[in-house]
Amino acid sequence: MRILLIATNRHRRLMSRMNAQPVPIGLAYIAGHLDPDRHQLKILDLMFSEDYLADTEQAVKEFQPEMVGISLRNLDNSSYMDPQWALPITKEVIDKVRSVTKAPIVCGGPAFSLLPKECFNYLEPDLGVAGDGGETFAQLAECIESGETHRNLPGMVYRDNGAVAINGLAYSNFAKPPRLDELDMARYEQSGFGIGIVTKLDDNFSHSMDANSDGNSWRVLRPIEDVVAEIQEMKDRFNLRKVFFIDSGFNVPLPHAKALCQSIIESDLKVHWNSYLAPVPAACDEEVLGLMKQAGSGLVIMKGVAGHDLEQQALSARMEPLQEVCQRCDEAGIHYVISQFFGEPGETPDTVEAKLAFLREIRPSLANLRVGVRIRPGSDVAQAALKEGTISDESDLIRPTFYLAESVREWIVERLIAEAAANPRWNVL
Asked: Are 77 and 86 in contact (CB under 8 A)?
């Protein structure tokens, strides 16, 4: 069967002053799970497309797919200052595909998995896969080809008597390596931030920086040898020299992180890499940071101080472990980025100034000052927004919607812009 996979992400900047194009690694893992002896595969990556609708139409007409998979990487760019909603582009692509083929359209990806019902209603594909789509998508291809039912497959999203039905979440052990041969890997390598590698996944199907310090939330811990072999394959085939470990927190669980670093060192990969870091002192001991540096770690990204209890005393208490982790990174020679949110529930002018003073003190290599908090359905932030009247209900939170505490709402943007102007490596997002 001919299967066309389309990566619709066109958001290129991971952070200001760094033009980073993230590789559609999730879609590549999907491709890797398809049997090459049974299916003819084509990947259409719209990241670098100058006319994405024309390219979509041409690919469909030329390839004549019998099944189309569409990956949603992000709902939006999570930026209050310059919000960009990703789903309209995906909707346009789906409509274009449907105008030239009757092949079933299947949506999936990280963004789709966060809000599968909402995404399904907005995009109107034929089917969807919520969760890790590798095995399920491959099984779905077999079902479509043979005419068998697909409704019992894990993670399937479909319409049942007009209503959206979701068959739980699909899970994968990422046993198959990603298929990267149809992607412009040389161009991605030049983007500067590294090619994505999955070493573990947490329970909420996201790549946030809120990693669990004890490691109990990880639902996938890939074998060390598989991760190392995947990096080696990228080097050998595509001459890649930089990767990005997209796990929520590279350093947790701690034994897994140390073992991976040790294996990278012993394999003599000589690869540079970036990662997210869980700012937990117990998971950032001298040994793991030393191994990370020796294994090629150049930059880590950490979330700043946060929490709904922003009383000055409580805020100071949360600064202490982050300050300790930053000091240890300095001693190990590891550069770090701090993503600090402003305007969360409980924020006051005093807590804003305390956060800014803290950033000035620790002097990160880069600081992203994030205005407001993206409101997700069912979250504590959503409840605060409902209580304060920022939103009337949770029905339209698929669109970029932000909470900004009333006590700082009128002046916070101007204040952060002024602070960033005085610190050239600080960005307001």
From this structure: yes
Question: Which residue ranges in the chain fall short of pLDDT 70?
Answer: 12-20, 192, 203-217, 307-313
Token pair recorded at residue 392? 């009337």
CA distance 238 to 181: 9
pLDDT tens-digit readout, 109-162: 999 999 999 999 999 999 999 998 899 999 999 999 999 999 999 999 999 999
Q: For the chain, what is the HEC assignment?
A: CEEEEEECCCCCCCECCECCCCCCHHHHHHHHHCCCCCCEEEEEECCCCCCHHHHHHHHHHHHCCCEEEEECCCCECCCCCCCCECHHHHHHHHHHHHHHCCCCEEEECHHHHHCHHHHHHHHCCCEEECECCHHHHHHHHHHHHHCCCCCCCCCEEEEECCEEEECCCECCCCCCCCCCCCCCHHHHHHCCCCEEECCEEECCCCCCCCCCCCCCCEEEECCHHHHHHHHHHHHHHHCCCEEEECCCCCCCCHHHHHHHHHHHHHCCCCCEEEEECCCCHHHCCHHHHHHHHHHCEEEEEEECCCCCCCCHHHHHHHHHHHHHHHHHHHHHCCEEEEEEEECCCCCCHHHHHHHHHHHHHHCCCEEEEEECEECCCCCHHHHHHHHHCCCCCCCCCCCCCEECCCCCCCCHHHHHHHHHHHCCCEEEC
Question: For 2-166, which CATH superfamily applies?
Answer: Cobalamin-binding domain (3.40.50.280)
Report the distance separating Cα 187 and Cα 196, nearest Å.
Answer: 14
The single-letter code of the amino acid at 416 is L
Please give the structure tokens belonging to residue 103: 């092949």
Cα separation, 178 vs 15, in Å, equals 25
For residue 31, list its beta bridge partners.
none
Q: Report how far apart, in Å, the C-alpha atoms of 276 and of each of 197, 217, 280, 303, 377 are.
A: 12, 16, 12, 9, 25
Domain ranges of the chain: 2-166, 338-429
Q: Model-level pTM?
A: 0.91
